[in-house]
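Incident review: delayed structure delivery

Summary: a single-chain prediction request sat in the queue longer than the usual turnaround. Root cause was a stuck worker, restarted by the on-call engineer. No data loss occurred. The affected request and its eventual output are reproduced below so the record is complete for anyone auditing the incident later.

Affected input:
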Amino acid sequence: MSRTAPHRPRPCFASCDGGAERHLAAELEALGLASVHPAHRGVHFEADRVGLWRVNLHSRLANRVLMPIAEFPAASKEALYGGVRRVSWEQWFDLHRTFAVEAQGTQGRLTHTGHSALVVKDAIADRMRELRGRRPNVDRRRPEVVIHVRLSEGRAVLSLDASGARLHRRGYRREAGEAPLKETLAAGLIARSGWQPGQPFMDPMCGSGTLVIEAALQAAGRAPGLVRLGLGERFACQHWADHDGAAFEATVAEVRGAAKITPTLIVGSDVDPRMVAMARRNAERAGVADLIRFEVRDLVDTEAPAPGPGVLVSNPPYGERLGEVEALRTLYDKLGSVLKHRFSGWTAWILAGEKAPLKAIGLKPETREPLRNGPIRCELASYSLW
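Output delivered after worker restart:
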């Protein structure tokens, strides 16, 4: 069994949506982290504890951050239980903390992730009861400590989840419409578009406002993790036994003090006044409402808010229900007309559901990339408008 000491820099892994790996790698390199290597649906890197905090605070693209603490052979229930029980869990979290276990992968006789998670949970609880006289409590809904086990190639890798609730849960979007974008996916679309603060940005079908809010957070130089902390949420690493609260607060203060606003025109519009009001409330919770111009406007009346170059990113309705696809054809035809005649010099990035009539836009996309918005298969198409 290999284990690492609790304080020195160690290998970590930040997971992300498929296709966002290179953008997440660039984000981590910009934070000054070492050994950054993109992988499938995530990025490997090395960080000390402060580096780990900074990823949780700064990353717009990571879904969560894992810190491996042990690895050992585990092709059977008995091997998995024994390996987990030998880990010094008492150095990582205290009895008064609630915990939960997540399992990924199957191998040997470990063919069900739910059963593997139960084996890990029992081994941890049995060790703590032997050493401390009682078992820690399990909380599957809102655990303070999350343990992740990955089974692959005959081995088990045990990691602490440093994030807890997934990082896309910034906390500001307490209201949403149908099939809303995850905040990390919205940030990923913006990263793919190449948009930078200072350039005009628009979403003419803004819904609950995720895209324009994520753009505004970037323009404000505000780390998304600050939104989460400001709304009373915590990261899982704040519950670890060796957490240095004073050092963490100093890091948070430093990140907060480094924020610098770049003057930027950001416009979110929607035909539904209820959605615009919802988007504005979400922006207020994110602390960026004063950086976004919200408008109630039909798509056919939409105009570029500024001369190009500018960037339009939008997530039109998907039409997943029977009969909706044909109804959307008119919408996509209108979108194409608006883009062709009123957004000269801009680039447009449209995330369309696989059943959506993307061809009705009437423009040839420069790029096309398959993506997922949760369970919905989508395609991201980009257009240069002249």
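Verification: Residues 185 and 284 are 21 Å apart (CA to CA).
Action items: add queue-age alerting; document worker restart procedure.
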